[in-house]
Amino acid sequence: MMGMRELGTNVGSVLASLMFVWAIFKNHFPYRLRGPIEKYIQKLVKFVYPYIQITFHEFAGEHIKRSEAFSAIQNYLSKKASSQASRFKADVEKDSKSLVLTMDEYEEVPDEFNGVKVWWVLIKHTTNSQSFSFYPNPDEKRSFKLSFHKRHRELITGPYIEHVMKEGKAVFLKNRQRKLYSNNPSKHWYGWKRTKWSHVFFEHPSTFDTLAMETKKKEEIKNDLKKFRQGKEYYTKIGKAWKRGYLLFGPPGTGKSSMIAAIANFLDYDVYDLELTTVMDNTELRNLLIETSSKSVVVIEDIDCSLDLTGQRLKKKEKDGDEEEKDPIKKKEKEESENKDSKVTLSGLLNFIDGLWSACGGERIIVFTTNYVDKLDPALIRRGRMDKHIEMSYCCFEAFKVLANNYLDINSHDLYAKIESLLGETNMTPADVAENLMPKSDEEGVETCLNSLIEALEEAKEEARKKAEEEARLKAEKEEKDKEESAQEAVKVDENSANSVVKENGFHK
Ligand SMILES: Nc1ncnc2c1ncn2[C@@H]1O[C@H](COP(=O)(O)OP(=O)(O)OP(=O)(O)O)[C@@H](O)[C@H]1O
Ligand SMILES: [Mg+2]
């Protein structure tokens, strides 16, 4: 059955034709009659067809980027369409986890907001343009058309559109596969690829549950993250950019990288792994960071190896170097990057953390990691920049229990007491503890693994004892040597002063 709006549309088209005919023949009417007739026709059109239509194009104006509004509407309607439209197009969206159903072209999807009805239609325009275009398919342009009664103009153009955008973005975030980005050297920023960041899917399994550290510390970090995620209004109120800095420090293998993955998984954010050593200068750094999206964790690992205290870049880390020597392309790249002077400075980095544009995009966590917190410039780590300092330390008993649960599925064992006392006496990183807990073969049971850990801990304890002894011996030797040297020095001074007395005496003679 034809609804009121469809009827209106048909009558509307008849009236539109009438307007057209009027435009052609109006010159045949006396001049003074033309104005009133036109006014009446318009009134009639408005009366019979009181609907307003808004069009949202996929690519607006000169933008080569897909319109955000179009994407949001598409996502919003994918939810609505599945329950209301009868013809669908199934898209396994690139980068998306699941099948996305979108309405087919010209399929009308009704929606309701605060009791007001609106209608959406997806329209496809086909043009025969031969010219070069950035658009994915230059001959096909799509847009969404929204119709509603003019009575509700304010409600629809205001709160309703806002609601669609918000919901659409939420659907996108739910469906998307998170990404791990790494920055490309700037010579790859141009040409057809033009990408500053390359990505793979982020699939690190580390979570706060699998992370070995004291429960209290873990909870504190989780609460901090929760507060951050919900804090948009709070950050706006206090006039601060919506970002938070974390500094993770501790010896290698204590779980700094695992912690970053756990943070990203907890917040459901993307990760940008920024390798500072391939960034040529502050401008490049800024361009890279401007391109990071919100809801992301920006990571700069081993900050002490990327910048020194004066802000000059150091050469690439040795441990990466070995790997690169083998690959001729990488070797060349390395040489090239070392030949050019690096100009990324500490102040450039601080500008990103604190500067005006640090607020671009919002909702970002910035994480620095280092093995040596004492080496860092105080300017970099003062409060306000790195809001939270987290020490990742050697494995304690509580952390061991998490690892034992992860690796061996156990919560207690007779050997726990022994392990607890050994962990209290010696330093072992969670990475080493984990390595010992991993069964070496299928036959190895829980007890064998725990015993191999005990053995390793005893060895480490013995090694530490020997090292301490050796250090004490060296220290004693050095002290002995220093003492001897100062005694010899004293003798020399005595001899010199005796000589000078003789000389003086001689002079006086
Ligand atoms: N706290 C931890 N909880 C769980 N697993 C851990 C922890 N610390 C280390 N591991 C294990 O050890 C491995 C190495 O840890 P990770 O890479 O996170 O250490 P890191 O502190 O980043 O070291 P580096 O300073 O060398 O980068 C991980 O793959 C993980 O399996
Ligand atoms: Mg690491």
UniProtKB/TrEMBL annotation:
Ranges that cross the membrane: 7-25
InterPro entries: AAA+_ATPase, AAA_N_dom, At3g28540-like_C, ATPase_AAA_core, ATPase_AAA_CS, Mitochondrial_chaperone_BCS1, P-loop_NTPase
Gene3D superfamilies for this protein: 6.10.280.40, P-loop containing nucleotide triphosphate hydrolases
Names of the cofactor(s): Mg(2+)
Occurrences of domain AAA+ ATPase (ranges): 242-396
Catalytic activity field: ATP + H2O = ADP + phosphate + H(+)
Pfam family for this entry, one: AAA_lid_At3g28540
Composition skew (Basic and acidic residues), residue ranges: 327-340, 464-495
GO molecular function, one term: ATP hydrolysis activity
Keyword Hydrolase in record: yes
Keywords, in A-Z order: ATP-binding, Hydrolase, Magnesium, Membrane, Nucleotide-binding, Transmembrane, Transmembrane helix
Region annotated Disordered, chain positions: 316-340, 464-509
Record carries keyword Signal: no
GO biological process assignments: response to stress
Coiled-coil parts of chain: none
Family statement: Belongs to the AAA ATPase family. BCS1 subfamily.
Protein name, entry field: AAA+ ATPase domain-containing protein
Native source organism of the sequence: Acer yangbiense
Lineage, highest ranks first: Eukaryota, Viridiplantae, Streptophyta, Embryophyta, Tracheophyta
